[in-house]
Amino acid sequence: MSSLATATARIVRLRLSDFRSYHQAEIRAGKGPVVLLGPNGAGKTNLLEAISLLAPGRGLRRASLDQFAARGPQGVAASGWAVAAMVEGAYGEVTLGTGVEADGEARTRRSRIDGEPAGSAAAFAAHVRVVWLTPDMDGLFLGPPSERRRFLDRLVLAVDAEHGARVNALERALRARNRLLEDLSTDPRYLDAVEQELAALAIAVAAARMETVRRLAAGIAQGRDEGGDDTSPFPWATVALEGEVERALAREPATLVEDQYRLALRAARPRDRAAGRTLEGPHLTDLLVGHGPKSIPAGQGSTGEQKALLIGLALAHARLVTEMTGIAPVMLLDDVVAYLDPERRAALFAALDALGGQVWMTGADPSAFAALSGRAERFAVTSGHVERFTAD
Fold first, then answer.
1. What is the domain count for the chain?
2. How far is residue 333 from each of residues 45, 130, 274, measured CA to CA in Å?
3. pLDDT digit string (tens) for 345-386?
4. First to last CA, the chain
């Protein structure tokens, strides 16, 4: 799909300190897939969550900093926590670390590359990209638009490490405008300034989303042209954005749309003041996903069809990340394999092999990963501990 040389980034060592259910833990991984085995509640997802913090953002659970800290017998949270990973990639071996320093005055998350301070985890993107699929996403197609927007922004963030900062700035600008609207004595010039910033951020966020969705749709279409068909265990998806700003950007230059949106914000002040919120903009955009072979909205498919469609979409996104960044992403699949029939399971393993990136998977039943025998590295996970898996 791309003329770019593809680098494979692999996590060869993962260390946790006072993170979730682990006071101290270490995993050393080789070249094959990594399978984490253990009963529900053992801490498998915690390990994937630690890896997800090597990507910009708040990780696969979108947790707060305090939620990452391990707790002692009396429920007292540790004063700090850390995740460190040695990554082998295009630039050789590099150690990426993130966490909250114990007894630090400011409870802020720190990031380091080979021990040197980095601005944020966005700096890790030069060395590793991470994408994931979790059970929490199963209701994506039936849930509210806000869930699909978060999913969409995660898709964008995997190829554009600065997207998260733009989205956060947009949310701050929206809150600032809402506060100003509440005060009837606000000088209109203050609102003009905030709305000018808000319009610029809105167009930047919408444009980044549109570009990612456009490329994702093109990649899905190309995959079908290169041999995909409508009988695949993971059906191809249609993807599009629904929003006023996006519709305008599809017709007009970004500078013109920015001016139009700024004027629309000014005109909508009485309406938005009455509503207590801004009623138009990319903060209300929806991601429309369809079941391509059946030509129906994804939400109208069966539960099994929705799961299969979501997996197909995740695979297409991983290919897009490789194409756009030149780095095959590390894929995190939390409790995905257990719910697939043997045909879909085999198809998933084959698709993961074709991606070429490192894969970390969790499950409770070792037999679900039997097809990976001899290739996967398996680890047994119990409460607070992880060690190489040994069959009875």
1. 2
2. 9, 11, 44
3. 999 999 999 999 999 999 999 999 999 988 999 999 998 899
4. 44
Q: Of the candidates 129, 146, 261, which has an alpha carbon nearest to the alpha carbon of residue 203?
A: 261
Nearest-angstrom CA–CA distance, 122 and 54:
8
Strand partners, 386: 381
C-alpha pair distances (Å), 18 with each of 57, 66, 67, 72, 277: 20, 11, 11, 10, 40
Strand partners, 112: 97, 117
Tell me if residue 331 falls in helix, strand or coil: strand
User: What region, left, alpha or beta, does residue 64 occupy, with left being phi > 0 and alpha being psi -120 to 50 degrees?
Assistant: beta
Residues in the annotated binding site: 38-45
Q: Who's near 263: CB < 8 A, 6+ residues apart?
A: none
- The two tokens of residue 279 are 């009623």
Domain interval for residue 204: 141-319
Give exposure, 150-184, as e/b (b: 16+ Cβ within 10 Å): bbbbbbbbbbbbebbebbebbeebbebbbebbeee
The CATH number of whichever domain residue 242 belongs to comes to 1.20.1050.90
Q: pTM score > 0.85 for this model?
A: yes
CA 250 to CA 271: how far, in whole Å? Answer: 26
The reply to whether 157 and 276 lie within a common domain is yes
**Would 133 be classed as within a structural domain?**
no
Most confident option among 105-119, 220-234, 249-263, 332-346: 249-263
121 in Cβ contact with 129 (< 8 Å): no
Dihedral pair phi/psi, residue 18, rounded to 5°: 50, 45
Alpha-helical (H) ranges within the chain are 44-52, 65-68, 145-159, 163-182, 188-225, 244-251, 254-267, 269-275, 303-325, 342-355
DSSP 73: T
| Residues annotated within a binding site for ATP | 38-45
Tell me the two tokens of residue 81: 């926590």
DSSP, collapsed to helix, strand or coil, labels residue 203 as: helix
Q: Which of 286, 319, 352 is the last residue of a domain?
A: 319
Claim to verify: residue 146 and residue 56 sit in the same structural domain:
no
Name the 3-class secondary structure at 96.
strand
66 & 94 share domain: yes
Q: Give me the mean pLDDT over the 212-229 stretch.
A: 85
Hey, how many other C-beta atoms are within 10 angstroms of the C-beta on 5? 7
- The region that residue 293 occupies, defined by phi over 0 for left and psi between -120 and 50 for alpha, beta otherwise, is alpha
Average pLDDT of span 316-322: 96
What is the per-residue pLDDT for 3? 37
